[in-house]
Amino acid sequence: MFKTLFTAIATLSLGSTALAEEKKADSMEEKNWSLVIHGGAGVIKRERITAEKDAEVRAALNRALEAGSAILAQGGTSMDAVEAAVVVLEDDPNFNAGRGSVFTYKGRNEMDAAFMDGETREAGAVAGSTTTKNPIKLARAVKDESPHVLLSRDGANEFAVLRGLEQAGPQWFATDERYRQLEELKARQTGKDGDKVSYFDIDMKYGTVGAVAVDQGGNVAAGTSTGGLTGKRWGRIGDSPIIGAGTYADNRACAISATGAGEYYIRLGVAHEICARMRFKGEDAKTAADKVMEELGELGGTGGVIVAAPDGTFAWSFNTPGMYRGKANSAGVKMVGIYGDEE
Ligand code: ASP
Fold first, then answer.
1. Does the annotation list 238 as a binding residue?
2. Where are the residues marked Cleavage as a site (predicted)?
3. Could you confirm whether 224 is annotated as catalytic?
4. Which residue puts its alpha carbon closest to atom 7 of ligand 1?
5. Which atom in ligand 1 lies closest to the alpha carbon of residue 207?
6. Which of 114, 128, 243, 321 is least surrounded by Cβ atoms within 10 Å, i.e. has the fewest?
């Protein structure tokens, strides 16, 4: 009888200790978050980048990581973290988004952006926006405050004013360096007007920016912002604002942001394809991203993607010599990289 009582008490106390341990583990798990950012992929090699540019880019990537991480560490949402990280990169002229966007053939800055919430799968995007200082905020406003997913050009500009988003004149977005790149592209054009190659950046420097995050609640979000391709014409829109191509988020799989030759990403539905592989084939983030990037490469496409999954795993994959990128998480990881050999 005593033995039975003792066993019962022991079981009870063991039970409550186990319960406490489990609770502790749970609450630790809830504190997990991660963030991945990119600032574009392309022919980015050590010999082509000055020490000054290298340092500026790394500093900006670090600032973006810090802005997003601070929000996630305090229990903020993945959406707020994604927006904060992208805003830092949009405001930095080193990247092809917001300030420092590339020029169209006609010498304008026309920006595309997308924003997606993995919990609700609500999304917002803009194409050819020209007046909103931070296009990522406009994309988010389309998601939050309109019944639509994708707005374009004058209409997108009008909507931004109605929503009270900060506006900026053309001089805010324009930089001398981007203008020089346009002139250089035009000078190097070999194809006749209208040729497929005539409006493509043959140097393949994609400076699009993006962020993906998972917050302490396990919700993922994705955001992408870009000026598109240097010398783009005829109202060309890339993959960045196309939900499922350059941007996607789904709590059942992952959040994705892409950079590269947008036409290929649209044709393959890259961001959705990576999520679908994770959902239906059970692949992890890295495997799914590598497979889809391999397929993209087989078609002739170049660029990269970043991925964050609700379980905290993150990955990137790119088939270009480099990609501006960074990652941070609650376990203390924090790194930024530029060249292909940086882990
Ligand atoms: N993906 C973008 C586009 O095609 C370009 C980039 O990644 O820089 O518009």
1. yes
2. 207-208
3. no
4. 259
5. 8
6. 321
**Of 10 and 57, which is predicted with more confidence?**
57
* 208-258 pLDDT per residue, tens: 999 999 999 999 999 999 999 999 999 999 999 999 999 999 999 999 999
- Which residue has its alpha carbon closest to ligand 1 atom 8? 206
Strand order in the sheet with 220-226: 150-152, 123-129, 111-117, 220-226, 209-214, 34-42, 322-329, 334-339
Q: Which position among 104, 130, 208, 302 bears the catalytic label? A: 208
Q: pLDDT band at residue 201, thresholds of 50, 70 and 90?
A: low
Binning pLDDT at 50, 70 and 90, where does residue 49 land? confident
Superfamily of domain 32-339: (Glycosyl)asparaginase (3.60.20.30)
Token readout for 313 is 């795993």
- Each domain of the chain, given as residue ranges in start order, spans 1-30, 32-339
Q: Give Cα separations from 24 to 15, 27, 74, 202, 215 (angstroms).
A: 14, 5, 18, 54, 18
Q: Rounded to 5 degrees, what angle do the CA atoms 241, 256, 102 make?
A: 45
Q: Pick from 37, 96, 109, 229 the residue to mutate for probing ligand 1's pocket: most ligand atoms within 8 Å of its CB.
A: 229
Residue 261 annotated as binding site: yes
Average pLDDT, the chain: 90
What are the structure tokens assigned to 110, written together? 């026309």
- DSSP string for residues in 44-75: --GGGS-HHHHHHHHHHHHHHHHHHHHHHHTT
Query: 218: Cβ below 6 Å to ligand 1?
Result: no
